[in-house]
Amino acid sequence: MTVRVAEPGLLTTVQDCGRWGHQDQGVPVAGPMDAVSYRLANLLVGNQPDCATLEVTLVGPMLEFLSETTVAVAGAEFELWLDAAPMPTNTPRQVGRGSRLRFGRRGSGARAYLAVAGGIDVPPVLGSRSTDLASSLGGLSGRPLRGGDVLRLGQGTGPHVTRVPPGASVTLPRGGATVRVLAGPDQDWLDRRSMDVFEQARFTLGPESNRMGYRLRGPSLDLVHTEPLLSSATPVGTIQVPPSGQPILLMADRQTTGGYAAIATVISADLPVAGQLAPGDWIAFEVCDRRAAVAALIACEQALMI
Fold first, then answer.
1. How many CA atoms lie within 13 A of 172 on its CB side?
2. CA separation for the pair 92, 71 (Å, rounded)
3. Quick check: 91 and 163 in contact, CB under 8 A?
4. How many CB atoms sit inside 10 A of residue 83's CB?
5. pLDDT for 148-184, tens place per residue?
6. Is the pLDDT of residue 5 over 70?
7. What is the pLDDT averaged over residues 20-28?
8. How many whole angstroms separate alpha carbon 203 and alpha carbon 247?
9. CA dihedral over 139, 141, 143, 145, signed as positive or negative
């Protein structure tokens, strides 16, 4: 079973749950920017949670299905057309041989996830099918999809759900979002004024923002230390402050280590919301404690249970 890419969209990549277990060798994790919508799309077509999907960014593709299968789209709001008929998001649909799925105008959110029954069957690299654009690993030769590409589909799916569980969908940002953060190990590298600014200001995602990280534009955060930091591990959601004072929010394709001051980390439950932001959107930060972060993650996981 195969799918042909008639039009690739702006940035469409193959993504599964990520290339975990190799960060000590300098290999980035990659994976979905919005892991909740990725999981929901797989759930809707009866896939295993780690099946590869297509991550669609800002402008979607047009795909031609060369065999019958089941598809679902979750995440950002797009107008979807299956042949001549509109297709809803968050709902599985049967597609016939020769059918075309076209992404139209985008509403809120930046990234959608297209799951196909059986998953996208590209060769795994270091245990993952995820595309890491910076190192050209995984997916189709480590690159975005191109017109004319043909994707093989896997075999074997389980029971699928007909709708998204209540409360499971990501609250899509409309122009921006406030996300919760935990204080980072290098928070004392900012003076009190700068920490107040960080907690109260809105920052804007710069045009150079991408899957590696968001370059944030806004008031400068002044560092009180000038000596170099030893490089340390960089979890997804780490907020670094380079000497310029303009923060960087590290995302799915982040490097495995970094030497800038890590002042905070976006909590796991709010990372999917951050993953739905686009260049030009605003972001603000609300500091919380570990107990609130764990409670939010538990609530998120419980909403995904069926």
1. 16
2. 6
3. yes
4. 12
5. 999 999 986 666 677 777 777 899 999 999 999 999 9
6. yes
7. 93
8. 9
9. negative
The per-residue pLDDT for range 219-240, each reduced to its tens digit, is 999 999 878 788 899 999 999 9
State the pTM of this model.
0.95
Return the ∠ at Cα 84 (arms to 83 and 90), rounded to 5°.
70
Alpha-carbon gap, residue 219 to 211, rounded angstroms:
23
Mean of the per-residue pLDDT values of the chain? 94
100 SS3 class? strand
Q: How many residues does the chain have?
A: 306
Nearest CA to 204 among 162, 240, 176, 167?
176
CA distances from 54 to 43, 124, 155, 203 (A): 14, 15, 17, 29
DSSP-derived secondary structure letter, 256 = S
**Contact between 44 and 90 (Cβ < 8 Å):** yes
136, 184, 257, 261, 287 from 24: Cα distances, Å: 18, 21, 9, 20, 29
Provide the 10 A C-beta neighbour count for residue 148: 10
In terms of Cα–Cα distance, which of 279, 281, 274 is closest to 250?
Answer: 274
What domains, with CATH codes, occur in the chain? Answer: 2-152 (no CATH), 176-303 (2.40.100.10)
Euclidean distance between CA atoms 14 and 56, whole angstroms: 9
93-95 and 69-75 strand pairing: antiparallel
Residue with tokens 């009180």: 224
Q: CA-to-CA distance for 9 and 149, rounded, in angstroms?
A: 12
Question: 5: Cβ–Cβ under 8 A, 6 or more apart, which residues?
Answer: 12, 61, 62, 63, 64, 145, 146, 147, 148, 149, 150, 151
Token pair, residue 55, equals: 């991550």
**With contact defined as beta carbons under 8 Å apart, do 97 and 3 qualify?**
no
- Eight-class DSSP state of 126: T
